[in-house]
Each structure stands twice: as C-alpha cells, then as structure tokens.
Specification:
The chain is built from ten helices and 15 strands. With 272 residues, the chain is of the alpha/beta class. It has two domains: 124 residues, Rossmann fold, CATH 3.40.50; 94 residues, Rossmann fold (3-Layer(aba) Sandwich). The strands form four sheets. The chain has a six-stranded parallel sheet with strand order 5-4-1-13-14-15. The protein has a five-stranded parallel sheet with strand order 7-6-8-9-12, with helices on both faces. The protein has a two-stranded antiparallel sheet with strand order 2-3. Strand 6, helix 5 and strand 7 form a beta-alpha-beta unit. It is globular. The two termini are 35 Å apart. The relative contact order is 0.18.
C-alpha cells in the first residue's frame, strides 16, 4: 500500500532524534518576497539561544553574504553573514579547490565576482581556465556570445545553480539554468552545477560550521533541490509547504522527506 503523504504529527515529531546542527533554505522557508514567514524569527532565535550551529543556504548568486544579511535584517531576521552560504560562495570554494589562483570569465553579479575575488581568482576575458555562469537580472547577449566562444576554445564550463527561473513581483524570470541551457545548445558542453541539488554545496556548508551530516537536519521548500540534496548528503530532511511545493506535489517524486510541516514553526520543537 502506498505511503500516505501528510503533514507530520506532533507525536511523530517527538519520536525523531534531535539534530545537533541545522541547514535551512532561505526563500520560501524564512522569507517570501522580503517578508519574514511565520515562525522564521522564532526559529533563528531558538537556534541562537540554544547555541546550535546553523547555516542559511540559497541558490541565489546575485548578492554577497553581507548583502543578504542586511536584506534579511530589513525583514526582521538577524542572521550574521558568516551564517549564510550562497551558491556563489560554494562555487568559489569549489573552484579554489580545483585550481587555486585560477582565472575565470564571469557572467553574474557582485555575489559571484566578490566570492571569486576573495578566493584569489582573476577575472579575465583572455584565455580563462573557466567560464563561470551565475544569475543576473541583466543577461548580456554579447557576454553570452563571449562565453560560448571561450568554451569552444577550451574553457571549462561552470554554473552556480541549475534553477531555470527565479521569482519577481511581476512573475518568473529566466535564471541561471535557462541561460546555461542556451550555452549548452550552442557549444554541446554541459556545465558543472555547484549549487543545490549538488551535495557538494551542502558538504562545503557542513565543513564551514564544523558539523557532521549524520547529526544535521535540513529544512527547505523544494523537493527537487532541497530535499534531494539533503537526502544525498545523509541529512535529516524537513519539507515546509510555504514555498514552491504543495502537499500533492510530494507524491510525484520517487523519494520522501523525513518530515513535512506547514511552515518553519513546525521544526522548532526539535531544537533543544
């Protein structure tokens, strides 16, 4: 008989092991269109008061970690920049492990270029080792053309995340995954995506705060990125229904989160 898809009950939650650390997605979990979601502030305060290590993750590569800390503060969430981990920062960390002090042609915003500079990368249009594609609200046709030519010339193709669209007040916008598909069609070269659902972003985040996957929980709003990457990294997975996933959507995936909650407030009883 198929397993019933439903919100986790308080009794089921009480029987779960208490995580020693938390990873948490940002959009759709803590905030929605720059407004804090119910329970978000209480969740962060509970972690801080308990001294439990945590990290807020986002596939958004536009903003620096400092920028995001400031933006979250305007939403009423006090989260230090060293508790924020972006796909841009994860990409820079990955590239530094592959080619310390390397060079890259970059399409993206300050979040990506700042992270790469901090890891000692040189930005260049002349024979770069990597073409690095991130998110921007102003994709340039000339920059995309240059990226295609550099990849055809031998540059390795890296992208921050596979998200095909991003949110805006007016509706979805084309994002990194869509532009990567365009470049792939032109070059016949697939990028290496560093951001979620690639477990490498999660593992780098765990290392950043010095915790182990076996005792860490991940709360997110997407099955295809958050729950998949958490599952593949061996984390306790918690899905919230305040973002991109409805309860009916869960049954369309071949894997399940450990628990499902109406919102972030539902996981607070596990913080102790």
């Amino acid at each position: 008989m198929p397993h019933e898809i439903r919100v986790t009950t308080p009794d089921e939650l009480a029987a779960m092991p208490r995580p020693k650390a938390w990873l948490c997605d940002m959009d759709g979990v803590l905030i929605h269109e720059n407004l804090a979601l119910p329970g978000a502030n209480e969740f962060i305060k509970a972690l801080e008061s308990s001294g439990i290590p945590y990290l807020v993750l986002t596939n958004n590569s536009i903003f620096t970690r400092r920028d995001l800390s400031a933006r979250l503060a305007t939403s009423g969430l006090q989260i230090p920049e060293d508790r924020i981990w972006t796909s841009a920062a994860a990409t820079a960390d990955f590239l530094a492990s592959q080619s310390p002090g390397g060079s890259a042609f970059v399409i993206g915003e300050a979040g990506l270029t700042t992270a790469l500079h901090q890891y000692g990368f040189v930005m260049t249009e002349s024979d770069p080792e990597f073409v690095v594609l991130g998110e921007t609200r102003n994709y340039s046709f000339s920059a995309i053309t240059q990226a295609i030519r550099l990849i055809e010339g031998g540059a390795k193709f890296i992208a921050t995340n596979p998200d095909a669209t991003g949110p805006s007040a007016e509706g979805p916008l084309p994002a990194t995954g869509s532009v990567a598909a365009l470049i792939t069609t032109a070059t016949n070269r697939q990028p290496y995506f560093v951001g979620k659902p690639n477990p490498i972003m999660i593992r780098a985040g765990l290392n950043l705060i010095g915790v182990h996957s076996e005792t860490t929980a991940f709360v997110g709003d997407r099955m295809d990125t958050d729950m998949r990457s958490g599952l593949e990294t061996g984390l306790q997975t918690h899905l919230v229904l305040t973002g991109s996933t409805d309860l009916a959507d869960v049954d369309t995936f071949p894997f399940r989160p450990m628990a499902i909650h109406e919102g972030i407030a539902g996981v607070i009883p596990l913080i102790s």
